[in-house]
């Protein structure tokens, strides 16, 4: 569909519709949170083009900048010199532009003249051509705000629904991790290959990394099984406590209930309340039609549950102006799983609960069997057989349940939708972060050609909400896909080249790996301090637990004595400062380094003395800080002051190996990812 659009007499050349995900969103929040970073990215790239031209003829570029200043003032209505005439950019604008500039003109969260208008802002990309004529590309950025289309469900409805689907959905989520790790197993190199010894060493390194990832995935699945044992009683307890007619108690539970309604409630609405779901889809469809009536080409950028809403909105009809559907952190597969699960929730829930019970029985009786083996020097055959059959049977039930959870649920409606989308020719890009738990990888195997992986923070807790802070990779990918979808390739000069984008991916994976290592070393240091100073920490925990008891007693109207104070352990505080202060310093340096590289990747930099953005001086400072952090934590673990000399060498070698392994792993990730935006 791209490249076939003729220019029309519509007011805007391009419209971008942002659709928010689950949660409590106020009107205008999505427009500012998404449109602002996109505008800043375009502005940075325009400045980068000007800097490239300035290196050739600085005086000429200053004159051109002055001309664009006059045009920008004219657009803003500022009195002064009459601006030069400007016109629509038209085809092949990227080949004729000397410099560009992005300008925001007007933002309306609520349009008083048009009640049907969503929150929107007008943006113009000014281009000064070789003949000194100024042209413009007019963009209309709008948001689709559907958070007010339904009343949130009650906490009772949510809790009862969650109790039915929670056991299976948690297990299948982490089961998908295990399935993905099995599919990533490295292939053994042929013995007859050239440089066989080097190939075998490379294979052993990949195999070791794969085994580690597979082990963590299996461990995550086991923890998910056991966490259900904790979460289900908590939900049931909150449900029972909410029925007690005590005002203070209900007020304390209100915040938890509202938070749950604002997150899980959106999924519940789509699965269980068809009228409310249709209202949400219709609201998005109306916003899409409003944008299409004003723009020659339009693009949808949808986050999380908004991606699922966008798919539902397009199942009726696709506007002829739509060029790209860009979803990121999409909740489409999760929603389809919940829909299929709700059709047969009881059998699957019973099976998931049975798997959890079998796992607990296996762990308990397996431990008891080991005690019998090692506690009795000469156990009789009957004792061995009597203690073995229970854990073996429990393991068989557990393995069968886990196998079903790893296989997941068949989603025929999703597969049908993907096949239909391919037949329409509409460009669909589904972007997901490496550790984002909502999409949990690609939507479906048949959608692999549409999928793009980015690296946000490699954190299960932060990846879903940090896409727009990933300016060098995510925003470069987004604008590159928008440019590909627009007619005549008039934004190609703002896109990053394939080799540059590959370097961006490699550097980002490496930077994030260093940041995550800094965090894990900090966590390890805290655990070591707590373990070595457990009596002092136990006093603090006991005091806090008594404070919780006093608070709960006040809710039920029971009078209790105030908890006693605890003695301050200055030694423990000193060790905590020894762990936390260097962590804060190294983390601050890493953040500055990360921001510098993201800006330099776009062609602009905070300091001109950076000759190459690939190798800033801050990198060496961060590596040195990482070594110091590791040296401190290992010294705390050893417990000798001053620490022995081998601690220094072990820390140094570990940091060097970390840098080498992550550099190799980054190359592998880049080869599996896209190499061009």
Rg (CA only): 29 Å
Q: How many beta-strand runs?
A: 9
SSE arrangement, N to C: EHHEHEEEHHHHEHEHHHHEEHHHHHH
How big a fraction of the residues is strand? 5-15%
What's the rounded overall pLDDT mean? Answer: 77
Structural class: alpha/beta
The total of helices stands at 18
For the terminal residues, how far apart are their CA atoms? 18 Å
Looking at the structure, what is the overall shape? Answer: globular
How is the topology of this model organized?
Layout: E1 12-19, H1 29-54, H2 58-76, E2 86-88, H3 93-96, E3 97-108, E4 120-129, E5 134-144, H4 155-183, H5 196-242, H6 247-272, H7 274-292, E6 295-303, H8 305-314, E7 322-328, H9 332-343, H10 345-375, H11 381-407, H12 412-424, E8 427-433, E9 451-454, H13 474-485, H14 498-532, H15 534-555, H16 570-601, H17 617-638, H18 645-672
Parallel strand pairs: 1-5, 1-6, 2-5, 6-7, 7-8, 8-9
Antiparallel strand pairs: 3-4, 4-5
